[in-house]
Design brief:
Strand content: 25-35%
Shape: globular
Largest sheet: 4 strands, antiparallel
Bound molecules: zinc ion
Radius of gyration: 16 Å
Structural class: alpha+beta
Order of helices and strands: EEEHEEEH
Strand order of the largest sheet: 3-4-5-6
Number of strands: 6
Oligomer: single chain
Helix content: 10-25%
């Protein structure tokens, strides 16, 4: 079973206690009442779908109930780190590249 680290409870808990809550770090436009429909649609509907490091919001719904952010590698499905909501986005490109290199090493060994 996948274990996810909750930065508030400070322990790894089973994935069944958590719920995905969308992309993290989506900034609401400052003057949202005066933006165009296209700009609003882009803010409201469009999300990144990266191959590699994705920054996501998660909620420890069957635990403390709090929202937090996670960096997850979409290739390996491994959580690289979790951090409290409001904390800055960690730069983890190198970690993702290491995972990619390990995955390629594993594929070439077959
Ligand atoms: Zn928690």
């Amino acid at each position: 079973m996948l274990l996810i680290h909750c930065p508030y409870c400070e322990e790894k808990r089973p994935e069944l206690e958590f719920r995905h809550a969308g992309e993290a770090h989506v900034a609401r436009p400052a003057d949202i009442a005066n933006i165009s429909d296209a700009e609003f649609a882009h803010y409201f509907f469009y999300r990144d779908n990266p191959k590699g490091v994705a920054y996501e919001r998660w909620r420890h719904i069957h635990g403390c109930g709090r929202f937090f952010n996670a960096a997850r590698d979409t290739i390996s499905d491994k959580f690289l780190t979790t951090y409290k909501a409001g904390e800055p986005k960690p730069e983890l490109v190198e970690a993702a590249n290491e995972n990619k290199a390990e995955a390629q090493k594993g594929n070439s060994a077959k």
